[in-house]
Amino acid sequence: MAKAPKKVARTNRVAASRRAVKPAAKRSPARPKKVVLLSGGNPQIAKGDGNGPVQAYIAAMPGWTRDVGRRVDAIITGTVPDVHKAVKWNSPFYGMDGRGWFVAFHVFTRYVKVTFLKGRSLSPLPPGGTPRSGDARWIDLHEDEPLDEDQFAAWVKQAAALPGWDPSSPRTT
């Protein structure tokens, strides 16, 4: 009877070694993660600093809005070469290092809203805004309407020269 336990122990070792030799299951190559579009087609992009997250946001913008996003980004970058970029609250933000954010944009179903965060200080005043908007003013860019690039660049230049919006400071009206 002493031999039975040895046989059982040997059988378990052999079975264990055979299990260890089995080839691992093949893994499929990593697929790029599909971007979720939120209400109105706004891409859900993880927040992050730098050009990378902003370009990921623009690449994920649906249809005609992607071209608008590329053009807005190009005008801002061309007008203010040392601009700091980030994606926050599912929107690209542009600012000056140490001075806060001055412009952001967001995708809606029928337009792209470009918001100048201290827009009340711009001349001429951007058309969008209400008494409850505080300092913010905006323009809505629609599919079939041309962008006045000269006026837009002038607003960007003015906005970049102002102290920007800092989300940690109290709201001013």
Structure description:
The protein has a 6-stranded antiparallel beta sheet with strand order 1-2-3-4-5-6, with helices on one face. The model has no long low-confidence stretch (mean pLDDT 83). It has one domain (39-161): Aspartate Aminotransferase, domain 1 (Alpha-Beta Complex), CATH 3.90.1150. The chain is an alpha+beta fold and 173 residues long. The chain is globular and about 40 Å long. It has helices at residues 3-21, 51-60, 64-79, 149-161, and strands at residues 48-49, 84-88, 91-96, 100-107, 111-116, 137-142. α2 runs antiparallel to α3 (64-79). The chain is built from 4 helices and 6 strands. A hairpin with a 3-residue loop joins β4 (100-107) and β5 (111-116). It starts with a helix and ends in a 12-residue tail after the last helix.
Question: Which terms summarize this structure?
Answer:
single chain; 173 residues; alpha+beta; Aspartate Aminotransferase, domain 1; 6 strands; 34% helix
SSE topology sketch:
Elements: H1 3-21, E1 48-49, H2 51-60, H3 64-79, E2 84-88, E3 91-96, E4 100-107, E5 111-116, E6 137-142, H4 149-161
Antiparallel strand pairs: 1-2, 2-3, 3-4, 4-5, 5-6
Strand content: 15-25%
Note the overall shape: globular
Number of domains: 1
Q: Would you tell me the overall average pLDDT?
A: 83
Query: How helical, in percent, are the residues?
Result: 25-40%
Rg, rounded, reads 27 Å
Strand line-up of the largest beta sheet: 1-2-3-4-5-6
| Count of individual helical segments | 4
**Low-confidence segments:** none
First-to-last CA distance: 92 Å
Task: Enter the CATH topology name.
Answer: Aspartate Aminotransferase, domain 1
Q: What's the total count of β strands?
A: 6
- Derived structural class: alpha+beta
Give a quick account of the main beta sheet: strands, pairing sense, barrel closure.
Answer: 6 strands, antiparallel
CATH class: Alpha Beta
- Write the CATH architecture name: Alpha-Beta Complex
Element order: H for helix, E for strand? HEHHEEEEEH
